[in-house]
Design a protein that fits this description.
single chain, about 400 residues, alpha/beta, FAD/NAD(P)-binding domain, 8-stranded mixed β-sheet, 5-stranded parallel β-sheet, 11 helices, about 35% helix, binds flavin-adenine dinucleotide
């Protein structure tokens, strides 16, 4: 067990950084300090799905009941539909044991529930990291206001533009997918009559529309993916006109029921979709990465936050087995070995899912596309939702111990 005087800094107070703070404190008994550049903890007003693989972790961290009470569990499995609303296949929505279901969360509610579990004294707002450097005494952090601090180790949970990533081996540039999404939430009272309380993905020619309930069904989330060259020369997100969104799904090739849904939307914003190639390394000595900093992925499998939550539990499990500060680089190395492989599969899978939803490449043949989506459903339930990040880390520790002490 690490001494309680061990000092670990987490850069970034997003969903990944806050979950890491909870896991390191509760599972490994470590004191952390979270540095967040913004002046308050917050999130965009849109939805996110907490999947069974993350719900399992959150239950062990003691936050799942709160999250369930704030979120919305759908009525049953989701559906993939073609542009005219014909069913392609049902979608996985729970693990094989039927213990955990997808939970639709309003992002500000999720970040609030996580923040409530972190001692406010350890969160340092308004601290924008400028650089990181390994030094004899640990890791030196320099902030944009010119101040410096030294910690025993640092975890970069600072998102797609991660500064910490620059200190770790390679740092690929984000890759633009050629797509933006129109995102937002609508009040459930505006839903067309009998709109089902499940997740739906409508897939048409080069665009798709996804929606699901949030916040005890008071809100409904929507995400509409359309091709665009907009982010290439400008900002990555911004306000958008509902009329632009409606025009993308106008015409006879889209079901009037979906058009009716879109006509009820009052407000939306656009967001460019980026990911990066899987990294070849996440850790360098006492410096490691977590969440989007380590593995930004496209949102088409709804796994970005869920993987950050898995990362947090795995990292805490490896750190809980460390005896002193000198063991931290080895704990980070083991964490990297376990997590890099899993998240690379999901990064690649998310690109493929996007190509399927939007009928790109080989999926322009819709018969093939639909067959592949059916196969993907079973993979999702087994390999994605049944995964137990803590168990996998513990098994890896056992294996390492056996090798070490045999
Ligand atoms: C349309 C869309 C839908 C999505 N849906 C889902 C979904 O259903 N399920 C899912 O699991 N994922 C989903 N995702 C992905 C998910 O949003 C991200 O994976 C997740 O937010 C990443 O969390 P993070 O904490 O790693 O990074 P971030 O949320 O980016 O947080 C990083 C934090 O670090 C701070 N920071 C950055 N730089 C610095 C610095 N230099 N110094 C100090 N602080 C810094 C930032 O201010 C921020 O608070 C979706 C993404 C999109 C675009």
């Amino acid at each position: 067990m690490l001494s309680r005087h061990t000092r670990i800094a987490i850069i970034g107070g997003g969903m990944g950084g806050l979950t890491a703070a909870i896991a390191l404190t509760k599972i490994a008994g470590i004191q952390v300090t979270v540095f967040e550049q913004a002046s308050r903890l917050g999130e965009v007003g849109a939805g996110v799905t907490v999947a069974p693989n993350a719900a399992r972790v959150l239950e062990r961290l003691g936050v799942l009941d709160r999250i369930r009470s704030l979120g919305a569990v759908p009525d049953g499995h989701g559906v993939y539909l073609d542009a005219m609303g014909r069913m392609v296949t049902d979608a996985a929505w729970e693990d094989t044991a039927k213990q955990y279901q997808n939970i639709g969360m309003y992002r500000p509610d999720l970040i609030g529930a996580l923040a409530d579990e972190v001692d406010p004294e350890v969160v340092r707002l308004g601290h924008r990291l400028a650089s990181v450097e390994a030094v004899d005494a640990g890791v030196r952090l320099e902030f944009e206001d010119g101040t410096e601090e030294v910690f025993d180790a640092v975890i970069g949970a600072d998102g797609i533009h991660s500064v910490v990533r620059r200190a770790v081996d390679q740092h690929p540039e984000p890759v633009y997918s050629g797509y933006i999404v129109y995102r937002g939430v609508m009040d459930a009272s505006r839903l067309p009559a009998d709109w089902p309380m499940i997740s739906q993905v409508w897939m048409g020619d080069s665009r798709h529309f996804m929606c699901y309930p949030l916040q005890q069904r008071r809100l409904f989330n929507f995400v509409a993916g359309v091709p665009s060259d907009r982010p290439l020369n400008g900002p990555w997100s911004g306000p958008a006109e509902v009329g632009e969104l409606a025009a993308e799904f106008a015409g006879e090739s889209w079901d009037p029921r979906l058009q009716n849904f879109i006509s009820q939307i009052e407000k939306t914003f656009w967001w460019g979709l980026f990911d990066h190639e899987p990294l070849t390394n996440w850790s360098q000595g006492p410096i490691t990465l977590l969440g989007d900093a380590a593995h930004t992925m496209l949102p088409h499998q709804g796994q970005g936050v869920n993987q950050a939550i898995e990362d947090s539990m795995a990292l805490a499990t490896f750190l809980a087995a460390a005896d002193d500060v000198g063991d931290i680089p080895e704990a980070f190395r083991r964490y990297t070995a376990v997590r890099m492989q899993r998240t690379a599969i999901l990064q690649n899978g998310s690109r493929r899912a996007g190509a399927m939803f939007d009928a790109q490449y080989e999926f322009a043949d819709l018969t093939k596309r639909d067959a592949d989506i059916r196969v993907g459903r079973d993979f999702r339930r087994g390999a994605v939702f049944d995964y137990d990040a803590q168990k996998v880390a513990e098994q890896a520790l056992g294996r390492f111990r056996k090798v070490q002490y045999a």
